[in-house]
Amino acid sequence: MKRISYIVIIALLLVILPVSTVTAQSATNTSWTSSITYYSPSSTAGELNINYYDGTTIYTAGPFPVSPHGAGSVNIGSTSVPDGFGGSAVLSANVPINATYVQFAKDSPTSYSRAFYTGFDESKAGSKFYLATVRANGISTTTFGVQNIESFEITATLDFFSVGATTPTFSVSVDIMPNATYISSVPDVSTYPGGSFDGSLVVTATKKGDVATPGKVVASAQETLDNGVSVYAFEGAKEGATEVYLPSAMCNRGGQTSYFAIQNTGDDTASVIVDYYNTSGVKVGSMPSTNIAKGAKLSTNPCNDSLLVGELGSAVVKSTNGKPLIAIGKVASDAGLITAFSGEIIGSTTVVAPYVRWAADQNTSWSAYLAIMNVGSTNAENIIANYYDASGTLRASHVLASALTPLAPFTKVNTNPSSAGALINNSFGYTVDGGANGGAVEIISDQPVVALVRLTTNPLTIPNISMLGEDYIGIAVMPIP
Q1: How far is CA 154 from the centre of its chain?
Q2: H helices then E strands: how many in the chain?
Q3: What's the pLDDT score for residue 109?
């Protein structure tokens, strides 16, 4: 059986703003390149092929051998894809494959942050698709991509809602070829009214020339700082739920604070609360019930309600009147850290993280920290994080919950390659320890969980920046037939 994964590639799209609006070191005004990292949870070997789509032009790469439980990466610069490409990729393999997209500055990768987001399988595509936050406010600029996964051309209608708006602030319709992608920054949308914008996006897709036939799309977004070095990204969603799980929440913990954007994907006004939990499993409080109009978003953080002050924790977004929601989280600090990740509406007993690293030199390379949140209804008493290198060798198994140390519902536990004992030469996922770049984690649990991966580095050469980082959400694995 062929397994398919879809990735929107927006890295090489260069958004040029007027010189007066950006500094010399501006993530918004930088050229980016990318790689696709992958992991297979299969116990048998296989091979991977990648097709890159730019309108009607297709570039192929592969086949790449995939070891059992193997992890690897394909840098777009090593393929036939030309400079200036901005489009999409379709991964196909004869074994289950999970992928994460990594974006980094093309000419000076150590001078900027990186963006991470996960690929989609067909089950995550929809005829309606939602991005909980899109911005062009003089602080950051959103660039988004909408990919058509159908075999026919579609027309996608994009409705942009300002914060608090009950009707679209502006809209645009675009035609997208099969497997191709429409990519734009918010200011470059042809109907953009100008000025500052902060809001959300709703995409509706139909077959071109046939509005009665729905078309399926996926979408991702990245934000770049107009006057800074950070880039961060997240995936959209085809639907919401009455509960959304966020594995990371804090208020001024070591200078870091979480921020949440919650979008109403229902057909009427949603009433929303946010419950906050500390790492001991105690619900420390909630955001009071707040209304969100159809299609619109609400921005909040635990500091608004004086919760999780100086503490690590997690959050559950709840609709109290049955209207579905989606949410994204961001974490920012005064040290320069800015991240983004998508909230999850369902957990799984197997979750994988295709891109996991640990650097011997924390000042020049990146290291991963994982947060695993129990979203089941009872205590988790058997959670194990298995660390695999590029060849598929099991380097460590980290027991995170047991009958003696259970993990309460809506509570999180942490792991990393160092605490798990997965290091060789003080490294994991790099050539110095595994002979090739590639490392992944597979989490097995007796209760459904969601996982968040934080990648960080501590640069010494960027003024006023002591930490860069980005988050991505782990991928739920379906049972292998």
Answers
A1: 25
A2: 2, 33
A3: 78
Q: CA distances (Å), 459 to each of 334, 335, 362, 463, 464, in order?
A: 14, 11, 8, 9, 10
The answer to which of 223-232, 243-252, 298-307 has the lowest mean pLDDT is 223-232
Question: Per-residue pLDDT for 111 more than 90?
Answer: no
- Give the CATH number of domain 243-342: 2.60.290.11
Which is nearest to 361 in space by CA: 191, 110, 131, 133? 110
Indicate whether 11 pLDDT > 60: no
**Amino acid letter, 301:** N
Cα–Cα distance for residue pair 452/359, rounded to 1 Å: 19
Given pLDDT bands bounded at 50, 70 and 90, which one contains residue 25?
low
Cα separation, 479 vs 432, in Å, equals 33
> 193-228 in b/e burial notation, b at 16+ Cβ within 10 A?
eeeebbbbbbbbbbbbeeeeebbbbbbbbbbbbbbb
Find out whether 233 and 115 touch, Cβ atoms under 8 Å. yes
Give the whole-angstrom CA distance, residue 190 versus residue 481: 46
Domain ranges of the chain: 243-342, 348-476
Q: Strand 325-333's sheet: what is its strand order?
A: 297-300, 256-264, 325-333, 338-342
Q: What is the pLDDT of residue 12?
A: 33
> What CATH class does 348-476 carry?
mainly beta
Q: pLDDT tens digits for 188-230?
A: 999 999 999 999 999 999 999 999 999 999 999 999 999 888 9
Which of left, alpha, beta for 218 (phi over 0: left; psi -120 to 50: alpha)? beta
Structure tokens at 143: 């660039």
Rounded Cα distance, 225 and 463, in Å: 15
